[in-house]
Amino acid sequence: MAKASKKHSVNRGCKSLSTRAIHAGEPRRKYADSLTTPIIQTSTFTFQDSKHIEDYTKKGKEHFEYGRYGNPTAQIAERRLADLEGAEDCVVFSSGMSAITTTILSLVQSGDHIVITDDSYKKTLEFCQSYLKQFAIECTIVPFGDYEVLEKAIKKSTRFILSESPTNPYLNIFDLVKIKKIARKHNVLTLIDGTFATPYNQRPIEFGMDVVLQSCTKYLAGHNDILAGAMLGKKELVERVRNLHKSMGGTIDPHCCYLLLRGLKTFPLRVERQNESALKIARFLENHPKVKKVYYPFLESHLHYKIARKQMKGGGGVVTFEIKGNINTAKRFLDSLRLCYIGPSLGGVETLITHPALVSYYDYTKKARYALGITDTLFRLAVGIEDVDDLIADLDRALMK
Predict the structure, then answer these.
(1) Which residue out of 83, 119, 193, 253 is catalytically annotated?
(2) Once rounded to an integer, what is the mean pLDDT over residues 145-153?
(3) Which helix (H) or strand (E) holds 261?
(4) Which of 318, 83, 307, 312 is nearest to 201 (CA)?
């Protein structure tokens, strides 16, 4: 029976993302001669003897102690994600929101200030606006894309700028080159939620961003069957987050990590297919008589098309669009779909469509929703890997009804 080797099979010398997505971060020879990374399903790890304990505690030799502090299967997932993102280190979490909230709390203290764009995820904004106040941490929300206002919002107490790129649901693109200059000028950190782009389409660290956050639930795992998140960046920053993570306890379980690793092996293939299909669907919708407006970064009509083309390899798998009509029209359209599932997430192999006004913002008044740009006829389509002609046919049939 072969013992697990510490020698990694692939390093960053291998340029192909597709190859690294399969091999990066794991030893060539694994426990029991397994081809796939084994699931180390244990909460507690044992020591051979007292010397083994001292080697771990006093000499810092690698060993696992307790599941909340680390796990071999999770470690492989962290190494692979870091490789794909071009980061020095990574820590994985039980969900994307656990990654975001733990990262934020680890980088600020009472009296600090942060800047966040108004097009960020609803729950991220809610956490920054409401919960941080309990710790006397101030949050300024600035209009997305207004870099002058953003720079003016920075104070001596500002610790970081947080945004998404692309954003949800309008798929706005943050100018990473521009924000890097502003951040360096004022000596603040930059945090980017790159979930919609994935490291296949955009690697913010290559543009000088300090931290990348990922909801691995989406494209990286890719099968709508797990919850997972990741924080990636320089070792020093990741270690700060990892230390708090051990106390907060948002630990991902080994089986989840196994499924994440399985999904990562095919994620470049899936995202490439989703890029191609989403662009075809976006062009179809833009020319459809029943559609009012389409938002997709690689459409020439998108507000940030030029920035997207400079920063991204592909436009991603999400297409947002508004149809003509009213709330009843929107409901009839949803009810007429036969192939696209109605669901709130994205990134899996099945195509999902959601109606933000009915799902994410159901508890908002119409006036409040419209102030955020969430109209009665707005839809977000998360394209899967089905045949694109079948998806277009389903959308067309539903729109004509």
Answers:
(1) 193
(2) 97
(3) helix 254-286
(4) 312
